[in-house]
Amino acid sequence: MNRIDCVSCGREKLNKNTIGLNKKLLGKNVKNYYCMDCLASYLDTTVEDLNEKIEEFKDEGCKLFE
Fold first, then answer.
1. 42 near 8, Cβ under 8 Å?
2. 24-39 burial by CB neighbour count: b if 16+ within 10 A, else e?
């Protein structure tokens, strides 16, 4: 997998869960990805809320978080 960096702050090497969450919340065809801090800011929420959503999606069996 190619290295994916945050489009907003430049944070390097986003992890699989962060990439999956971007795809889940912004669309599977998204080309630019946000780190958790920037995604939380973009969506006007908290990183803690985003982490909870990741766990919910995992529990639901979402393939983006395998």
1. yes
2. bbbeeeeeebbbbebb
- Report the distance separating Cα 7 and Cα 57, nearest Å: 24
- Could you give phi then psi for residue 33, rounded to 5 degrees? -120, 150
Q: What is the pLDDT of residues 7-60, one digit of tens each?
A: 999 999 999 999 999 999 999 999 999 999 999 999 999 999 999 999 999 999
Q: What single letter denotes the amino acid at residue 54?
A: I
SS3 per residue for 25-57: HHCCCCCCECCHHHHHHHCCCCHHHHHHHHHHH
Taking the C-alpha atoms of residue 42 and residue 50, their distance in angstroms, rounded to an integer, is: 12
